[in-house]
Amino acid sequence: MGRWPAMGTLWAFAALAVPAQAQDIAQLEQPIDQAILDGPLLPDEVLRSSALTFPSILASFEREAAARSDQLAADGAFDLILEGEAYDRVTGTFSGGFASVGATQPIKPFGGEVYGSYRLSDGRFPIYENIYNTNELGEFKVGALFSLLRDRRIDKRRFALEDTRLATGQARLDVLLVQLNVQHEALKSYWRWVAAGREIRVYEQLLEIAQARMIGLTRQVRAGATPQIAITENEQNIIRRKTLLAQAQRNFAVASTSLSYYLRDRTGQLISPTREQLPDDETIDALPDVDALLTADANALVEERPELQELAIAIQRATNKIELRRNDLRPKLDFNVELSRDFGGIGDGGSTFDSTDTVVGVQFTVPLQRREARGRLQRAEAELREKELKRRQIADQIEVEIGNIVTNLTAALELSGLAREEVQQANAMVNAERKRFDLGAGDFFLVNLREESAADAQIRSIRAELTGRLAAASYSAATMDLDKLGLD
Fold this sequence. Notes:
The protein is α+β, with helices and mostly antiparallel strands. It contains eleven helices and six strands. It has two domains: 15-75 and 158-319 and 376-478, Outer membrane efflux proteins (OEP), CATH 1.20.1600; 81-157 and 332-375, no CATH class. Helix 3 packs antiparallel against helix 5, helix 5 (156-222) packs antiparallel against helix 6 and helix 5 (156-222) runs antiparallel to helix 9.
């Protein structure tokens, strides 16, 4: 049975995942909890925390360990087997007794086995136990058994050995797939938390402006320069802006709770981030440039995805199963060769045992109807066709997914740029309207309207940037950018 070829870069990632994770877990002795709690919370700290402590990632490593254990168990089919036997007559007409010890070693070529044994007898045996006689120093025997038709290329032992090896490869790929999904969701949760915190700042500033204006309006009303209705209108603005702030605070609390699902201490306990840990605007980098993404070879990216690599292994496993089922249809023809020799003086069995014996033989078995074997073969072939169709579907789905991500990311960058321009224009309108109002030529209603329009523009800018961050995170996951996902 042919060996499954190397799988390139992805196999290297998957093979290195286990030792790298073990090293990182060992590094948990470092004060990771303190690093999370001190200073602004950055995405690298969230990604490191989730990579090392998230339960589904740890569970995937356990599944990989279980698969390796199955591989070890399959190797056990080729373990050396040692067996012994002895008996002696205590009473009776005959005094014969004997002891024997032997070893059998299954081998992979031709589904065969080699064996050797040593026997030693003493005393007289009845004619029907004459085979137990040996010379005085015993008998040595070696032999081998080979399959010439059925089980020649593949049998249950070799199939299990190859199947568990491939299953271990699937488990390694599953580890990588789980890591990609978890880190993707952790990164998205982080940016939603940052955006929710920035929205709170916008609404707080909007409320502070209305509250500060109340002091000036109260002074002007007392002086008779402004009608009482201006205070009432500003109170309405304060209540509305408090409502917006309360909604933003609720959204931030939800985002903090969602982020704590991925932000954990070394024992796996959730850590809920606070507003004090929000990074400032200078710390938040600009959205990534997508020029390189737009020119990337989508087909190459698709072929490297772990879902497709896992299905490729599944197809290989199904192909091996078909070969095993076809093997069941073949007749069985076994060839056996055996060499034995007695040593020492002639024993009670006589001179007929004082010789070197070479024995060869064949055993032939053929199933006639073979309905069970044909049914299993047809099922295995159907399973293979199903996996091939599924792989085609997943490949098309991933290609569409990557195309949509690039489209969304490009659009997000454009919308983010427009949103920033809108913020600048809205702020300019606010400043102009405030000057007109201070000079007595403006309208209080228009001032409030301009301020809230400017705040809305800032919120749209924040959400446009969030959309870009989420699209960038999705692209990093889709293209397996392990560095950006904290898995390098």
